[in-house]
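Final report, closing paragraph on structural work. Over the funding period we assembled a curated collection of sequence-structure pairs, and we close with a single example.
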Amino acid sequence: MPNPLFPFDNRYAQLDGLSVPWQPAKVPAPRWLRFNHALAEDLGLNTSALDSDEGLVVLAGNQVPDGAQPVAQAYAGHQFGGFSPQLGDGRALLLGEIIDPQGQRRDIAFKGSGRTPFSRGGDGKAAVGPVLREYLISEAMHALGIPTTRTLAAIATGETISRERALPGAILTRVAASHIRVGTFQFFAARRDTERLRVLADHAIGRHDPDLLKMAEPGERYLAFLDAVAARQAKLIALWMSVGFIHGVMNTDNMTVSGETIDYGPCAFLEAYDPETVFSSIDSHGRYAFGNQPGIAQWNLTRLAEALLPLIDDDSDLAVIKATQVIERFPDRFSQHWLNLHRAKLGLRADGADDEADRTLANDLLQLMHEHRIDFTLGFRRLSAVLRGQPDDLRTLWGDDTAALGAWLGRWQARVPASGEAATELADRMDATNPVYIPRNHLVENALDSATDAGDLKPFERLLSIVSDPYTERSADALAALPGTPEQTRGYRTFCGT
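Its predicted structure, as stored:
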């Protein structure tokens, strides 16, 4: 008997009341857009079997693979601050779970596989552009070392999807540490279903924090779980801030308890530094602006804490006190991660250093970048050129007004020698931290437009290759390191694709 395409070992689908069994919709004319061989190999899958006609049929949803137990997951969520008691997987299906060669449990899920009981009037489909955006940005995030879901495959379905205009349809296969969200807990908390809330929490703990199962007191276990989720999110958001990533729609149903970035809808990257930057067309009030992301993460974690209160302590007042203590640690945790990451970006060692002095140094540079509208990525990347005796590479970003930059560089250069490294070694270390390539917004749009309107995947493949190796500067890719022109960046907006 041949080996199955996926060696499923399903747990979530067997938990009563947490999901609804469902089947993906069949599509008329599937064809490959892209298969992620590297990810398949990391997962220990049979790449030749998956990247085949048989694999195409399965990854298009036309044939459910052996061992799969496809379900649509139930969850609620705060969307732009307003609570929706039922959201759920409206166009997604969890096919099942596998154990990778490192012993980690991974979800294999479809996105764009048709209507489910949670579709809320939507068609349950996805278009080529949003599918390829998620593939591209999630692979870029992975290459940048940021925890993220990833895309195993992108398949064109041969359908026409109705959005603002007719678009070619597609389906994405997403791999995640889990698809358990803050909103998953909110779903059962809103229904006062404490028993299923406990089942969900125990499953999440066993999956992401198994050591906590050893704790004798259940209430302390759930409090420790909240603490672990908060710790992961503090690090994740600091990583986003260190590369200029804007998620765009940080609703509670888009925050995982695993600490992975999920749901690449209206996401984008900063160019000219401005903490108030918003690209999402649906974020009209700037709730999810770049600089607001740490505060929103804490707000979301507070909603998780509220959901877990019945499990933390039978005394509701005491449960609130305990949970509040966890949530109030978030700013300091985030701040420390942010400082560590920005020290690395500036080439500074932490040993014996003055935290507040280094924080001020980093913030002063960001303030200068804001005032002079300096590209965030290049502003940090070209600092290493100063150490190599090529300060003009950085100064050209400032144009003729370099007096303030010169004063800041004097302070920075007075601090850098404390590391004791040779200048070239320090420059190399900084270059391994500050990317030269990010998914530039104009290049992303060009790649997606070419794939959508002309069926031409070459710009997508080229950009994917570039952002998959973001720290190595290549002369052939020099243009891909540059921000868009004013015409390309003025009024730029991103869209959810739903």
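The mean pLDDT is 95. The chain is about 45% helix and 10% strand. We thank the funder for supporting this effort.
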